[in-house]
User: What shape does this take?
Amino acid sequence: MPSRLNELLEHYSRTLSDGRLSRGERRAIEAILADAGFDTHQKANLQSRLFKLAKSRVKSARAHDAFDWLQDALKTIPNKETRQTVSKVFFSPGDRCLKAINSLIGMARQKVDICVFTITDNRITDAIKRADRHGIRIRVITDNDKSHDAGSDIQELRRSGIPVRMDPTPDHMHHKFAVVDNNTVITGSYNWTRSAATRNFENLLVTDEPKIVKAYVKEFTHLWREFA
Assistant: This one.
């Protein structure tokens, strides 16, 4: 990596000669930086070297130009690490969707907001109740009609003290998603039922992509207020 640092410093030094960074020079430097893949420590070292370059010019009569150049030079170095999002897809029949749901509920640190058409799979219900006992804040939105079906676990969750709100309209609340700790979304066609795991062809998407999570948080908040 020292060779890449020296290469960059040579580029910066050439631009300092006229006290400014042209658009073309800036793009060339940014391309080298992107290719070098400097970590936080290496970026800090580069910034320190740039200050030394500018300081060497301060001793001359062109101090003002040197600091204008330094301001432009520092803008070429990204000051935020790129956040890598993670998305995973699971399919049924099989237990991969079930395991993904229960694993994420089990890993929750603060809250799980659940918005699903129905819950009849006792294995998921047990994971929800277990999280609730461990102090995780659980909220459930579901469809009023499906809550009366044989095998529905909604009333059991209510008896456990978990807040549940239902769609009071003649239409269906047909969502199938959950938001864990406001940073991970579970969504897809997968109903939280045993038949979804054992017989149906279903899909489940898990993602922490911020824009997607934000949209689902907004929808849950809207429905929670709507069904109050």
Q: What stands out?
A: The chain has two domains: 2-75, 87-226. Residues 2-75 form one domain.
